[in-house]
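Possible regression after last week's pipeline update?

I re-ran a chain I had predicted before the update to compare outputs. Posting the input and the new output here so someone can diff against the archived version. Not blocking, just want to make sure nothing changed silently.
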Amino acid sequence: MRRLMINIYVVTVCSILYVIASFAVSVHFENIELFQASGAILTLAGVLLAARKIIRLGFKKFMQDEETIDGGHFPSTAEEEEQTKEFKMDMKAYKWSILLILIGTIIWAYGGVGLRLFSERVDNINNVAVETLAKSSTSWDGQTLPGYPKGKPEITILRIKIPSGAILPMHYHPVINAGVLLSGELTVVTKDKKTLHLKAGDSIVEVVNKWHYGKNEGTNTAEIIVFYAGIIGKPITVKYAH
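New output (post-update):
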């Protein structure tokens, strides 16, 4: 009989492990039915735990035992200790059985819905795309970028809209900056006549401490996001003084 009790616990542990394994397999192979069916097995394990006392004593003896307790029979000390021990084990098994039956029933009934939502969330995470738009130690004209200035860092991000046909005034940036052209076209020209033409989606690592200007030769407004790595108290743009 003790071996049978041990087998009940083994079945319970195996059922829990099966639920965990079926969850992993179901997520990997997108087999929702496998995980949902594992709820029935977990529920069955809970029923076996709940019936521990009946299995331990046998149904006939179980009924006799209940009648004996109701009749006020007092067993000997050794029997009482053994009975108390078994009663505690029965109560623990009963409590665990309620939990297993509850979880197993939920998985059995709603496991498919929960797993589907979980799988969709995992798919969304796995489908996250990262694209490096720019990574360089030189500006677009081939010059090595200067070191970062000393001081308390201050990050500035600007959204700049340049109408069609507009020409920006000559200027330079004393700090490292880079950007991405969101829409339209943009041409950047340095004072020594070096030229860079950008179209929507292109990135730029801008020249530093070098006079230049931009112009929109396209038919639509050019929109660009620019990131400046400056310091507090220092301008990010210096305009040309005529």
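Follow-up from reviewer: compared with the archived run. The beta strands are 153-162, 171-172, 176-183, 185-190, 195-199, 203-205, 212-215, 222-231, 238-239. Marking as no regression found.
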